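Hi all, long-time lurker, first post. I run a small reading group and we've been trying to get comfortable going from sequence to structure in the token notation. Rather than ask abstract questions, I figured I'd post a concrete chain and ask someone more experienced to write out its structure so we can walk through it together at our next meeting. Sequence below, copied exactly:
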Amino acid sequence: MDILTSMKIGASALKAQRTRLNTIGTNIANIDTTRTPEGGPFRKREVVFQSTNKGFAEHLGASQRDGIAGVEVAQIRASNSPPKMIYNPGHPDADSDGMVAMPNIDLMEEVADMMSATRAYEANVTVVRSAKRMAMKALEIGQ
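-- Answer (accepted) --
Happy to help. Here is the structure in token form:
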């Protein structure tokens, strides 16, 4: 593997974590949304990552062609957990018993996920910067 491969792996992780942060932002923004075009309350979105790990021989061949991707977002799916039912008879979306179906989003869980994604993003920025510094030092040695 060369230095550019490290940068490509870091860049793929940055892109994946940015998608995760955007999805978390969407969840938080819709924490009180009781109506969607599909009907019912907003359903929490979850990001699924997919590794593109390869064996040594595949890495060698891939580095000669396109490089390697590291990680990618396989899908963003709606959670299967049921909506939270809250008693609020004055709400326009309340049923005959006064219960309102609210999104299945826990704010504290979203904040914890956001902090985790932020730390992972920062760690990958460090990887890319380190690879850049190594490349610059290698160029300085050649002078």
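A couple of things your group might point at:
The radius of gyration is 22 Å.
The first strand starts at residue 45 and ends at 51.
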